[in-house]
Amino acid sequence: QVQLVESGGGLVQAGGSLRLSCAASGGVFSINAMGWYRQAPGKQRELVANMANSGRTNYAASVKGRFTISRDNARNMVYVQMNSLKPEDTGVYLCNAQTVDRDYWGQGTQVTVSS
């Protein structure tokens, strides 16, 4: 079992920045990749960015050049630095950890970008 706890969401004006953090605990040795998804009202959950243990990253086209994902493996943390935020970035951001058996999810943190 892997437990994930997010922090760092909030309200920000368009053009501003936020940094989200996610702490993993429990069976962290089984994690192959960690990342972030988001879900806006009435929309499907979508990948924001993830990073494999190898360091390979994957970004949604809509956030490339604005968001940067990073991991601190010693602390079992994953971060996403979000710059130049847009109103369409608004949503609940969920931390994700992938293992061989299944995906784990955090409870989510709200990000609201005002225009």
Could you describe the 3D structure shown?
By secondary structure, this protein is mostly beta strands. 0% of the residues lie in helices and 59% in strands. It has strands at 2-7, 10-13, 18-26, 31-39, 46-52, 57-59, 67-72, 77-82, 91-99, 103-105, 109-114. Strand 4 and strand 5 (46-52) form a beta hairpin. The chain is globular, with a radius of gyration of 13 Å. The chain starts with a strand and ends with a strand. The mean pLDDT is 97.
Give a brief description:
The protein is mainly beta.
Task: Summarize the SSE layout with pairings.
Layout: E1 2-7, E2 10-13, E3 18-26, E4 31-39, E5 46-52, E6 57-59, E7 67-72, E8 77-82, E9 91-99, E10 103-105, E11 109-114
Parallel strand pairs: 2-11
Antiparallel strand pairs: 1-3, 3-8, 4-5, 4-9, 5-6, 7-8, 9-10, 9-11
Task: Supply database-style keywords.
globular, 0% helix
